[in-house]
Specification:
Strand order of the largest sheet: 1-4-3-2-5
Structural class: alpha+beta
Shape: rod-shaped
Oligomer: single chain
Number of helices: 4
Number of domains: 3
Radius of gyration: 33 Å
Order of helices and strands: HHHEEEEEEEEEEH
Length: about 260
Amino acid sequence: MLDLDKLVTLDNNYVTAVAQLQSAQARIVASKAAFERAQALSKDNITTVAQLQSAQATFGADQAGVATAEAQVKTLKATALQEWGTVIGKALIEGGPLVTRLIERQTFLLQITLPPGTFITAAPKATVQFGASASRHQVDFVSPATQTDPKIQGLSFYYAADAASNLLPGMNVLAFLPSGAPIDGIEISASAVVWWTGRAWIYLRTGADTFTRHEIPTDMPAPGGGFIVSVKSLPPTPEIVTQGAQILLSEEFRAQIQVGEDNK
């Protein structure tokens, strides 16, 4: 999670600079009109040379004020784009809703950095996990990051997380991004998975009161805590037991123990 103190400061400075530019532009409209009026009166010898020079000096000072204010706004625009990229920088310049949500802490900004040597053609949606909790939270892609994490040195991207995710600035998160070719798969819920001998299993219904245990791969975790399993690794049209899988595991081994005792 990124600390947005710099973004808040930059936004405040930009808003102030724009207000100063608008004020300078308003002053020059008045001083220009006053100078032109003094010039016209000078031709008819109605105003003095001193009054004309004073009006000219005021107009000149206001011109310099506008130039200075324009330069300050231009510098802050360039800083916003350089430090935050085109998406966030443009939102700051235009007063867009993204920056408003970030400043008001309705949305938090994450920087997700890929391992060195890992490349993706387009940054997709991602999920993140933090702390000891196994739960994951959906985060939305914002833009490529303007700098990488110096500890990782990989491609970096900005993602936005809803404030309800309970993420806080300074937190380190574990990010999950889809990569490679899409697969035809089924999401297996965490409640359907049982663990035995260090491997993951599910139960498939084979009849009204019969079930069979089936091993599943665990290389593709699902956002809800379960797993994404290719349909190729499952029987055709599988009927997966999503509740009570642990009870079935206990019953299976209790039945095995009873059969073993009967054979003695």
